[in-house]
Amino acid sequence: MIEIRWHSRAGQGAVTGAKGLGDVVARTGKEVQAFALYGSAKRGAAMRAYNRIDDKPIINHEKFMRPDYVLVIDPALAFTDNITENDKPTTKYIITTHLSKDELIAQIPELQDKKDRVYVVDAIGISMDTIGRSIPNTPMLGALMKVSGMFDLDFFLESMKRVLSKFPQKIIDANMEAIKRAYNEVY
Amino acid sequence: MAEKMQLNEVEVWDGNLAAAQALRQAQVDVVAAYPITPSTPIVENYGYFVANGYVDGEYVMVESEHAAMSACVGAAAAGGRVATATSSQGFMLMIEVLYQASGMRVPLVLTVANRAVASPLNVRGDHGDMYAGRDSGWVQMDAFNAQEAYDLTLCAFKIGEDMRVRLPVMVHQDGFLTSHTAQNVHPLQDDEAYKFVGDYKPYEEMLDFSKPVTYGAQTEEDWHFEHKARQHKALFDSAAVIDEVFEEFKKLTGREYKRVESYMMEDAEVAIVALGTTVETARVAAEELRKEEGIKAGVVAPRVFRPFPFNEIRDALANVKAVAVLDRSAPMGAMGALFNEISAAMYTTPNRPLITNFIYGLGGRDFPVSEAKRIFKEQKAHADAGYITTPIQQFSGVRGPKLGFFETKRS
């Protein structure tokens, strides 16, 4: 089982991102689960979304999770939310930031001993450049594909086109560009 | 004619979308609804389907849940296939009319995303609303995941509309844990699903002006009791039709439902009885405990909460030594309702297992696998000791001082 925890603010698209990822993964024959934890959500409130991916049906409904991947799509949450909660010695972090990896890690004591498992990408900057709005969810998925090696880029792009098919072509194209850039820029 | 929707063999749907798709495929004539979290997307999606021509139906906007259920009862008495959705406070406001629906014997379907009842205000899942419906005379079925929310909603129409039943049916799912959790769902195609549900067959419909009928008549002490007794019997008798519908559904889909679901019970020494997503989480715990510690743990779950499956519960728990019954609702000065019903059933068997009660998960408090394991281990301790070693009612997962009520009386 692969478990993923998203740290986001309500309105940044973590739920859509988690469900979109689930959609792509389910069509490869795997079982998925995507859910989110928020109160009576207010735009901007810190929230978490979750994915589970497995080869057999997922019947575990606990919220508790030891994540394999932690995806932080709001830069400030890396500092204010407990992003290392319940992590494992192998947990990988992908963090949205305009800082360099070294600058970021230097400011977050909890990440000091996990340097080799921390990846950064400017998902906000990329979404502003490509989509024109701060919707960092699809670029984060591009970064996840690179870091996890879950699917190759072309397959993932094709799958996401289908997931986004209800949107106008312009928005789909912008999202494709965002995914590609994040895939290539995450490090 | 309504437009068909092409569905994939596997869709990733949350419980709300799954229920809404079932309403669409059943081609519900009337949905009167007043949306409330977490069931809002069920009627929101149905509204989308109507607006885009995927249902030849009527979406009636009303000013409250009381009005929503009233409009549904009217539409059902008029002779239409009717459904709506609600949760929590909305369910509470519907309650008066729930009794009207069952007393008038109108089949209609209520999809409920279970949510805690205020005060304090809480939008998350527990079973307080579901329990409040347990004397209302409806068939109550419980889905443990999104696939089941879809399957059972299709079955609900077929059960309630059967001429041998003619009763309203609720399909419950856990708020958020199912309603907002997307998982793999294998839907039927539109034609297959509609063929399974079948055309709506009107009976004594008010819109048949050639044969005027009265719904909601007054009966005083001369007839009220007989009416209620018949209604009670009709609800118990619906069990046979539920079994038939589940059997037919299995032939169509390969997916099997029983009025009581049992998991790993063949050789189980200890068991958890629960409802909703907890059933599946407890299965994970039972599997792990069997591997890790050799504890013969199993899980039993009423799929159909009403009519209460008294016999099937007795069969499922016939050979266990200790049972923990989990109630996700605050019983307020009593033992949990599910505990009471399971205990009553087991008291009339030669094997009277040790039964304890856990109140858990209120307002959406997480129920982790680790806690299910702890509860199983406690049952194992009771079984080994031959008596209940803890208070009979305990609270699971609550902060503050440990709460426990009542000890076994031992001579």
Write up what this structure looks like.
The complex is a heterodimer of chains A (187) and B (411). Chain A has helices at residues 14-26, 77-80, 101-107, 123-130, 137-148, 153-163, 169-185, and strands at 2-9, 31-37, 46-54, 69-72, 92-96, 118-121. Chain A is an alpha/beta fold. Chain A has one domain (2-185): 3-Layer(aba) Sandwich (Pyruvate-ferredoxin Oxidoreductase, domain 3). The mean pLDDT of chain A is 94. Chain B has 2 domains: 11-253, Rossmann fold; 261-405, 3-Layer(aba) Sandwich (Rossmann fold). Chain B is globular and about 70 Å long. The relative contact order of chain B is 0.11. The interface between A and B is medium-sized, with 22 and 28 residues.
What's the number of domains of chain A? 1
CATH H-level homologous superfamily name of chain A: Pyruvate-ferredoxin oxidoreductase, PFOR, domain III
Measured by DSSP, the beta-strand proportion of chain A falls in 15-25%
> Which architecture of chain A per CATH?
3-Layer(aba) Sandwich
Largest interface: A-B, 22 and 28 residues
> What's the number of helices of chain A?
7
Number of helices of chain B: 12
Summarize the structure.
The complex is a heterodimer of chains A (187) and B (411). With 187 residues, chain A is of the alpha/beta class.
Give the SSE layout:
The complex is a heterodimer of chains A (187) and B (411).
Chain A: E1 2-9, H1 14-26, E2 31-37, E3 46-54, E4 69-72, H2 77-80, E5 92-96, H3 101-107, E6 118-121, H4 123-130, H5 137-148, H6 153-163, H7 169-185
Parallel strand pairs in A: 1-4, 4-5, 5-6
Antiparallel strand pairs in A: 1-3, 2-3
Helix pairs in contact in A: 1-5, 1-6, 4-5, 4-7, 5-7, 6-7
Chain B: E1 11-13, H1 15-25, E2 30-33, H2 40-51, E3 58-61, H3 65-78, E4 82-86, H4 88-103, E5 109-114, H5 128-132, E6 139-142, H6 146-161, E7 169-174, E8 182-185, H7 190-197, H8 224-253, E9 260-263, E10 270-273, H9 277-293, E11 297-302, E12 304-306, H10 310-316, E13 322-327, H11 337-347, E14 354-360, H12 369-385, E15 393-396, E16 404-405
Parallel strand pairs in B: 2-3, 2-4, 4-5, 5-7, 6-7, 10-11, 10-13, 13-14, 14-15
Antiparallel strand pairs in B: 1-8, 6-12, 9-11, 15-16
